Amino acid sequence: MSIEETIRKTVLKIVRKEEFDFTPATTFKDLGADSLDIVQILVALEDKFDIEIPDDDLKGLANMGDMIAYVERKVAEKG
Amino acid sequence: MLFKGKVALITGGSRGIGRAITLRLASEGADVIINYFRKRDTAELTAQEARQKSVKAHIIKADVGDEEKINRMFSEIERTFGRLDILVNNAASGVARSALDLDTRGWDWTMNINARAFLLCAQKAVPLMKDGGKMVSITSLGSRFVLPSYAAIGVSKAALETVTRYLAVELAPKGICVNAVAASAVETEAINVLSGGQGLPPAWCRTPVGRMVEPEDIANAVIFLCSEEAFMIRGQVITVDGGASLVQTAPDKPC
Question: What is the 3-class SS of chain B, one letter each residue?
Fold first, then answer.
């Protein structure tokens, strides 16, 4: 499964909207994600990809496209 | 050195109250295992501070609201140290909402991290406490008093205190002392998160002593409960609040 697909499935499961039309432009707000959802998404992505996502980095991620690019970069950096 | 040669696990041990407890235990000679949730850098900084006190410091990432992560954490502790003498159940989280606004996700999240984690950690810790041990949970006055947006956390802390009492009785024959420390508002970054950046009502910030409770005040009580001087104290909740809970004041504007 690609990084994008893993993120899509993980995010939609946590926000309980598995049928949502998820695109790179989708934001946490579009998904109706509250602060608990966001923490759970970050924890799940950190676990799945064995990376760390500092809260400060989150501020620069405007939508899911940014999130996917960020995770891909982190995974690549890890080697 | 009260705890030379002992091994202590402090959940949520990298910052705030947990950090103060970690460093005090290290000052007393204990090797410390610092459990953290997400901020590795902060955990590593606390570990470095602990190592300056000539003890071993080991960091373990684990969401204590997740049973599998707790199991993995204890497997690592067993592999690395082979024993455990002190368990400080300090990690806490919670959804800051009124009772009527709580949903099951927020309830479960809060209860799992604040109350269930102590039960699960204790179950895993007992086989590692081969020569007996000490367990201390960190609770808050919110278990007894109603605070704004504190419904889930208050209930979870009440449950935590009851877990503490049951464990105290069940583990007494195994040479394990179990107690809790209840804090009033403590000057940490968690206060800002809980209050949505508004600060707490003045009634919870002012104490008869004249200052807020500091993390080191909580750490001092934990150190005492982990010492042999506290041997006959079992299943108790020791309040560290500078007398705040003794005076009745109505909350007003944030301080």
Answer: CCCCCCEEEECCCCCHHHHHHHHHHHHCCCEEEEEECCCHHHHHHHHHHHHCCCCCEEEEECCCCCHHHHHHHHHHHHHHCCCCCEEEECCCCCCCECHHHCCHHHHHHHHHHHHHHHHHHHHHHHHHCECEEEEEEEEEHHHCCCCCCEHHHHHHHHHHHHHHHHHHHHHHHHCEEEEEEEECCECCHHHHHHCCCCCCCHHHHCCCCCCCECHHHHHHHHHHHHCHHHCCCCCCEEEECCCHHHCCCCCCCCC
pTM of the model: 0.91
Using an 8 Å CB-CB cutoff, list chain B residues near A46. Answer: 38
Option in A36, A42, A54 nearest B109 (CB): A36
Structure ipTM: 0.81
- Give B-chain residues touching A52 at CB under 8 angstroms: 38, 40
**Tens-binned pLDDT, residue by residue, of chain B (255 aa):** 999 999 999 999 999 999 999 999 999 999 999 999 999 999 999 999 999 999 999 999 999 999 999 999 999 999 999 999 999 999 999 998 999 999 999 999 999 999 999 999 999 999 999 999 999 999 999 999 998 889 999 999 999 999 999 999 999 999 999 999 999 887 766 665 555 566 666 666 678 888 889 999 999 999 999 999 999 999 999 999 999 889 876 555 565
CB contact B45 to A (< 8 Å): no
